[in-house]
Amino acid sequence: MSSLEVLDLSDNNLSGSLPQCSHNFGDSLLILDIRRNKFEGRIPQTWTKGSKLMVINFSQNKFQGWLPRSLAKGKMVKALDLSNNQFNDTFPSWLGNLPNLKVLILRSNKFYGPIKTPKANHKFPNLQIVDLSYNGFTGRLPLKFFQNSNSLSFDGAEHLTYIQVNSSINLPDNQEYTWNLEYSYSMIMTNKGVDTVYSKVQEFFTAVDFSSNQFAGDISESIGNLIGIRLLNLSNNILTGCIPPCLGKLAKLESLDLSQNKLLGEIPQQLTQLTFLESFNVSHNNLVGPIPHGKQFDTFQSSSFEGNSGVVWKPIDKEM
């Protein structure tokens, strides 16, 4: 199988461990998809040796243990989805030196511990979508890891080089004929409180989901640097302090979920500047004061603010 470019074993009933020889597919393999099976055990440490893989999807299996450090050798990897397994490890900061990594999905595993300040060479320079939800991460929000990302920190699609998360991948020309292969890559993220399947994400889509962990402390003002972000979900953590007014700088933001934390103070008036905001949820915190009015805020229902005993919600009278 030295010329194999795509190996898709997804949606079968395959079981057992990943063979130690699974890395011996030659230099041509670009896509490896074994999602939605019953594979278990550990991933071999050597399986990415000499790899040119661009897309790796091991999601929805029963893999366990530590992530193989050999993943750091996958310099061509653009999308890595390890969600819905039983990996038990600390945050893989060593993946931050992968120059082409755009999508990192670790949701619904057993990752744990604080995410420490990144080393100089672990900066995730082109990360576009990161989902760490439903794990056991602790400590402060790891914003420093991702504030150097071109995709999250720049405003405008001209800075984003990744194709769609679910998109056509153009394979190299064959000597005898030219052919293109469309390969579907989807992901699940929590939006509007619901697990949503994103099967066709536009190239400018950028998202951060840190929900359902044990992150604590306040939300740093540095979050205002992620001006290219479209979806931000920090819900179901132990965050304290006030909602930073600098969130109003995230002009492209479409969905903001800060619910089920311990946030204090008033909802900043600056958030009314978010004219693209379609979903907003700050329910079940310790917020007080009036709800800002104007623009998108006049469209949100009371459920977006419930569970805050000090919040004053008054529906807008709409003229017939």
Automatic annotation (TrEMBL):
Q: How does it sit in the membrane?
A: Single-pass type I membrane protein
Q: Quote the InterPro entries the UniProt record gives.
A: Leu-rich_rpt (IPR001611), Leu-rich_rpt_typical-subtyp (IPR003591), LRR_dom_sf (IPR032675)
Task: State the GO CC annotations.
Answer: plasma membrane
**Location, primary (coarse class):** membrane
| SMART domains assigned | LRR_TYP
Q: Which UniProt keywords apply?
A: Cell membrane, Glycoprotein, Leucine-rich repeat, Membrane, Receptor, Repeat, Transmembrane, Transmembrane helix
Q: Which Pfam families match?
A: LRR_1, LRR_8
Q: Which domain of life is it from?
A: Eukaryota
SUPFAM superfamilies documented for this protein: L domain-like (SSF52058)
Q: Where in the cell is it found?
A: Cell membrane
Protein family (similarity comment): Belongs to the RLP family.
What is the name listed in the Swiss-Prot or TrEMBL entry for this protein?
Answer: Leucine-rich repeat-containing N-terminal plant-type domain-containing protein
Organism of provenance: Fagus sylvatica
